[in-house]
Write a structure and sequence with these properties.
Chain lengths: ~400, ~90
């Protein structure tokens, strides 16, 4: 392959030798140190290839050996240049392309993150930008060690950081700090009591003496697990009680909504604005007239890629959705749907640790307010610790 | 003559091929042959290749014979060699 490239760069000629003594010609060029290859016999002579500079110097040998040489193919860079000699624009364009490539390769066009688990890449990239590393920066102006120090100080959760600026990509390797575990003190005696009323369904006692059984009803602040433990020798000791006591708990929650109220209604129309980003600069390309009223904007950014590397060219599209503040009157069924959504969110986020066993829903319409009452039976852990003081 | 050669060889311990300019021929099956000590190509066709050396002329016959590599002192021939002839 390398040999082929060298031959192409130097230029070579495929020639045919015709005459009475072509072998003599081969011997003569062989002794004069001229290199040739692929020499094969053909009708009345030989066919072979030779570097252009050597081909120009074998005329004398050809005359001496009484053979005729004819070039059948000319390949390589010298012939290519000769063909395009008059078209100077191609040469200038090629030189310019190389210069631009060389210039653009001196900038950082992409920042990659490795080793992020808890930390977000947007936080780190903003910290990097503040510390002196951002997309579109001159590679030589980045003081990697200073940036590493500054980012470590800015983001305290970073344990170790390394920035490698190779080619146009800055790879940021981060090792996050191990989080300090939550330490709960267990060196004092305590009882476990009930947080609320309920019927016990499951008891998991790790330490202490359980005072309730499955199926028994308990009231709020009733003792569930005692810290007094009796051993086999009838000695009493105080321990730090630890247990999970699950009970079915009845709970009420009401959700309400106004039937006629001012609400933001999304409009069907939206406006778009497009900017072309090139070499870190944004140029407005397409704009549309804006509407009055509340709006929500969504940004889409697209970047050209080559071999998985982001190029410094692309476009950013901003889409604005408009809302009108209108007085809307809800029907009973739509109000019911909205309240059921609210209830689902409540069950998911507020009562996430418990399991909803049953719910009974009742609806009430009172003038302008629609109310939904939910009567839940939730199975949840009702244990809470209460420290006791031991005297003597 | 042979007696004389043997005597000389035992006395100076030099390989025979160097003493008498004999060519070194190395065959790889019948598909490739390397001739060291050649002085030129006398005939080159796809059926016959004749190589001149200081001591003799060597003719290789076969099918599809090609000169793979030529240098002033050695030649490599590739193809289907069926016959080798030494003409002195």
């Amino acid at each position: 392959m390398v040999l082929k490239i060298i031959r192409w760069l130097r230029g070579y000629v495929v020639f045919t030798i015709m005459g009475r003594f072509p072998e003599r010609f081969i011997n003569l060029i062989n002794h004069s140190g001229i290199r040739y290859w692929d020499i094969v016999p053909c009708d009345g002579g030989y066919k072979g290839s030779m570097i252009l500079s050597d081909y120009l110097s074998i005329r004398k040998i050809a005359r001496k050996s009484n053979v005729k040489i004819k070039s059948s193919k000319r390949v390589g860079l010298p012939f290519f240049i000769k063909n395009y000699k008059r078209r100077k624009g191609i040469l200038i364009g090629g030189v310019c392309a190389f210069l631009i490539m060389g210039l653009l390769s001196q900038f950082i066009w992409e920042i990659n993150f490795q080793g992020l688990n808890r930390l977000s890449s947007s936080d780190i990239s903003s910290a990097l930008q503040d510390s002196g590393l951002s997309v579109g920066m001159w590679k030589g102006s980045v003081n990697v060690e200073a940036v590493e120090r500054k980012v470590t100080l800015k983001v305290p959760d970073i344990g170790w950081i390394s920035i490698n600026a190779i080619n146009n990509i800055a790879t940021v390797e981060i090792k996050e700090k191990a989080q300090k575990p939550k330490i709960t003190k267990t060196d004092y005696p305590c009882n476990i009591k009930a947080k609320c009323d309920g019927v016990i369904t499951k008891t998991v006692v790790y330490s202490g003496t359980c005072q309730v059984k499955k199926g028994s009803a308990v009231g709020k602040n009733q003792l569930l697990v005692s810290s007094v433990v009796e051993d086999t020798n009838e000695n009493l000791t105080y321990v730090h009680s630890k247990a999970d006591i699950y009970a079915d708990v009845r709970q009420k929650k009401s959700f309400d909504i106004k039937l006629s109220d001012n609400r933001l209604i999304p409009q069907e129309k939206y406006t778009e604005k497009t900017d072309i980003s090139f070499l870190g600069f944004n140029f407005p390309y397409k704009m549309s007239s804006s509407h009055s009223g509340e709006k929500a904007s969504i940004y889409y950014s697209y970047c050209l890629q080559a071999n998985g590397v982001n190029l410094p060219a692309g476009y950013i599209r901003e889409r604005n959705y408009y809302y009108t503040n209108t007085k809307q009157k809800l029907s009973g069924s739509s109000a019911k749907k909205i309240l059921q959504k609210q209830m689902a969110l409540y069950e998911c986020f507020s009562e996430g640790k418990g399991t909803v066993k049953s719910r009974k829903l009742t609806y009430k319409k009172d003038k302008d307010v629609f109310t939904m009452n939910a009567d839940y039976t939730i199975n949840k852990n009702i244990s809470k610790t209460q420290r006791i003081r031991v005297e003597g | 003559m042979m007696k004389k050669i043997k005597q000389e060889k035992s006395r100076v311990d030099i390989p025979v091929e160097f003493m008498y300019n004999l060519p070194i021929i190395e065959f790889t099956g019948n598909r490739r042959v390397m001739v060291e000590g050649s002085t030129g190509v006398l005939q080159y066709e796809s059926e016959v290749v004749r190589i001149n050396t200081n001591a003799m002329v060597i003719a290789f016959s076969g099918r599809g014979l090609t000169l793979k590599c030529i240098s002033p002192t050695s030649i490599i021939i590739e193809g289907f060699i069926t016959n080798t002839e030494f003409i002195s």
